[in-house]
Specification:
The chain has 181 residues and is an alpha/beta fold. It has one domain: Rossmann fold, CATH 3.40.50. The protein is 33% helix and 18% strand. The protein is built from six helices and six strands; from the N terminus they run βαβαβαβαβαβα. It has helices at residues 19-26, 43-56, 68-79, 107-110, 137-147, 170-180; strands at residues 3-8, 30-32, 60-66, 89-95, 123-128, 150-153.
């Protein structure tokens, strides 16, 4: 059975050199969730766009989320469990979840607070960096525990984005493939 990989970027989308963009170009079943406005996210709109992408995906789904895409995924799992296609989601790779609850969080992401703290009903992995400017490692670890997710600290890699220089990020792909199974 085909597994669709839905790539869900965060605020401002993922540009050139970002591991998500590289994966979208190299993985045959990878498709980017296209939000209407990457610069001014609305929680309900982003959740519903993700829901539509999941519903229309072929076969099972694994979500590869970055930053605010992680919050969107957690909110989707919290609010859309009643949807008939909910069971299509086999797993989620949640990379660099942002601290949407932090006072100094950018205004556009504060609408995603509080971060849901429910056990996700699918296999999930949280990957965080020890020097992420948008989320302290302890907070990412706390969310992983609440979500029932496996946790990986990859050391000092910033926000695990294009500036992190990961390219096609082989370790991340290995974690992704562990979810595809």
């Amino acid at each position: 059975m085909t597994t669709t990989i839905l790539i869900h970027p965060g605020l401002f989308n993922s540009g050139e050199g970002h591991w998500q963009t590289v994966w979208e170009d190299m993985l045959p079943n990878a498709h980017r969730v296209q939000q209407r406005d990457w610069d001014a996210p609305g929680r309900d709109e982003w959740i519903n766009t993700l829901d539509t992408a999941i519903a229309s995906a072929q076969g099972q789904v694994v979500i590869a989320a970055h930053s605010l895409g992680c919050a969107t995924t957690a909110w989707w799992a919290t609010t859309h469990a009643h949807r008939p296609h909910f069971a299509k989601v086999k797993g989620a790779l949640l990379v660099a979840p942002p601290d949407v609850e932090r006072e100094s969080a950018p205004e556009p992401v504060k609408g995603f607070a509080p971060m849901p703290r429910i056990r996700l009903p699918f296999k999930s992995l949280v990957v965080a960096s020890s020097d992420d400017p948008w989320c302290e490692l302890a907070k990412a670890r706390e969310w992983a525990a609440a979500w029932g997710a496996e946790f990986h600290d990859i050391g000092a890699r910033g926000h695990i984005n294009s500036e992190s220089g990961l390219g096609n990020w082989p370790q991340g792909r290995d974690w992704l493939y562990s979810l595809v199974g």
